Amino acid sequence: MVLSLDHGRPMDTNAEVRVGPTPTPPQRRQKVGRGARPSPLPYLYLLPAALGLGLFVYWPLVDTVGLSLYEWNLVSPVKQFVGLANYRALLSDQGFWISVVNTLLAIVAMCVTTIAAPLAVAVAALRVRGAMRFVYRGIIFSPTVISMAIAALIWLWMYNPMQGLIAKALRLLGGQGFAWLTHPQLAIWAIIIVTAWKTFGYNFVIFVAGLLAIPQELVEAARIDGANEWHTFRHVTWPLLAPTTLFVVLTTLMLSPQYLFIPTQILTQGGPNRASNNLGYIIWEQGFEVFRVGHASAIAVVIFVAFLVFSVMHFRLLERGVHYGA
Amino acid sequence: MKRGAWHWRLMVLSAIMWTLTLGTTSPGLAGEAITIDYWHINSESFGGNAVKEIIKRFEAANPGIKVAEKYQPAGYTGLIQQAQVAMAGKRPPAVVQMSYNLLAYASEALPHYPIENFKQKDAAFFATFPANILSLGQLKGVQHGMPYGLSTPVFFYNADLFKQSGLNPDQGPATWADVVTMSQAIKAKTGKYGTYLQNPNDDWMFQQMVLGNGGEMLSADGKRVAFDSPQAAEGLQVWADLTNKHKANPNLTRDEGENNFIAGQIAMYATTIAKLDHLKKNAKFTLRTAPLPRFGTKPQRVAGGGNALFILATNPDQQRAAWEFIKFLHRPESIATWVQGTGYMPPLMSAAEDPKTLKPFFQANPLMKASLDSVPAVTLWQSFPGTNGLEITKLVINATQEILAGQRTADMILKEVAAKANGLLPK
To answer: Which of B22, B133, B259, B377 is the right S-S partner for B300, CB 3.0 to 4.6 Å?
Structure first.
C-alpha cells in the first residue's frame, strides 16, 4: 500500500503518488454581501496605518524631491526655482564628498565592530554557564539602553585630552592624551567608536536570541558525527543563523549613517574643518544651520536613491544564502 | 441611535475645542487683551526669572497686552529654527531674541517688521542709545532689530596659578605679546597651559582677532569679504602661533577648554562675560577678569555678542504691542533686572550709572568691570549678506579650525577661503 504524502490516507496502488499539496479546483468567485464587489472592510482597517505612513513618510519624501529643485529657506517670500542646479552643485561640493567617504568608512567600521564582533561575543557568552551568564549579557547590553545623547556626553568626558579617562590611561602606560575631537584624522573615529559602543549590545542580543533558536539536536548530531567546534559553527550554526545575520547586517547598514548624527552634533559638529562630517549630519547642517533647504534636500534625495538601490541589491544577494525556517 | 448620539457629542466637543484654540490665538479682537509670544533663550540659570519679573511689571503697566514668554532650550540657533517652523505654519512669535551673528540672515531672509518703522515716531527713545550699540541691529543703515542682550569677550584668569608662576595676580595680560610671555612663565613654573581661546561652532573669536588688529570682515559696500587683508592674517596668526609655535594654547573644543580651565589645567580663558556665573560657581581658585588683550598699541575693538529683538508678528495690533513691550524692556529699571539676572552688559551705559540699581551692582561684582569697560569698544559681530550668508560663516569657522591645525599659514588659508566666500556673496 502506498500512502499519499499529503493526506496520509490509503489509496489505490495504481494511482499516481503525489507529493505536495493537492491542487485546489478552480473556485467560482463568491459573492460577498449584497453586491458582487469584495468587502471594503480590509481596506478600512488598513486606512489608519496607510494614512499615517502617507502623511508622515511618503508625503515628506515627495515634498523633499520638490524642495530639492528650489533655492529657499522654507519661510522667505523669495522661492527660486533652480532646476537640477542643487544636484549639479553636489558634484563639485568638497564637503559633500568628504561626508560620503566618512559615511562609507563608518559603515565598513560598523560592519566589523557591530556584526562580526557581537557574533563572536554572543557565541562566547552562550558558553558561560550559571548565574554569571546573565550578568555578562546584562553588562554587554547596558550601553544600548542609554540614550545616544547621554552616550555622546559620556564619551565627551572620556575623550578630554587632559582630564579624560582615555588620556589618563595612556599616561599611565607612558604615552600621552590625544585631542581626539580637534584632530583631522581622529575626529571621525571618535564618532564611530561612540556609535559602535552604543549599537554593539543591541546586535549582541539579537545574535544571542538567534543562536538560542538553533535546535540543539542538530548541533549534537554534528558533534556525534565527529565535527569539531569550527565545523559545527561553519556548517550548522552559521547557515541556520543566516536570517538573524541578514537582519543585523541590513539594520546596521541602513541605520549606521543615521546613528552618526547625534554623536557628531555633540562631539565635533562635523569639524575640524569638515573632517568628521557625514551624510547624516550634513543634511541637518545645510538644512537647519545654514538654511540651504534646497541643497539639503538634494543631498537627502541622493542618499535615498543610493540606499534604495543598495538595500534592494543586498536583500537579493543575501537572501540567496539564507535558510529560513530553522 | 446610540452611535448617532456619540457622533453628535464628538462633533460638539470638536467644535468647542476648535473655538477654544482659535479664541486663544486670534490676536486683537475688539476689547480683548492682545497676547504676544516672546521667545527667548533665558533658562532659569541664565536670567529666566528676570524675564518673568519684567513681564509681570509690563503686564501691570499695560493691561491691554499679555505676554506669553517661551524659553527655547537649544540656544539662538535652536530658536531661529523653531521660529522658521512657526513661520512656515503661519503662526510666528511676535518678538524673538536674534543672535547678532544671525542679523544679516534674519534681516534679509526672514519676513519681519523692521524696528526702523518706529524710528520717526519714537525718535526720543532711540536718541538715548549710543550709535555703536544701535548699529548692532542694523543692516545697510536700516534698523531691523533692537539691540538688547550685550556681551563682550573677556580674559578670565586663574590668579592662584599667576601667583605660583611669579606673576602679579591683580594684572591680566594687556597685549597678546603679554599672553605669550605669561604663558611661558606659567608653563615653566607650573607645567600648566597658559591660555585657551574659546573655539565653539561660531566665528566670534575669529572676528575678535581680525577686528582687534584693525582688520575688517566685510568691505564697506558689502560686495566682498575683507578677511584676506594682512591685518586679518596677522591677527589670526597670533592665535595659530599661540597654539603651534608657543604650545601655550591647546587646540581643544570649547567644552574641553572650559573644563580644563575650571580644573586648573589652563591659566587663562578668553570667552564671553556671560560665562562669569558658571565659572564662579565651578572654579575652585581665585577667578579674575581682564579685557581682551590688545594688539600692541592699537585701540581696542571687540565684536559684541548677545541678541537684538526682532518683531516677527504680521498683525498690526501685535506689531504695536510688540514694540511697546520692546520699549519697556529697555527702560532703565527693566535693564537693571535683566543685567542682574543674565550677566549681560546694559545696552544703555546711563543705566550702569544708576545709583539705585546697577551702580551698586557693578561695585559688588568687580569681575564684570573688564566687560563694562569694553562696551564703548563694541562693534558689530559681522554676519554676511545674501542667501548664502550663513554658508560663508561656516567657511570662516572651517578656516579657523584649519588655521589652528597649523599645516598652512593663516595668510594662505584666508586668501583661499575669501575667494570662495566672494563667490557666494550677492553681486
So the answer is: B377
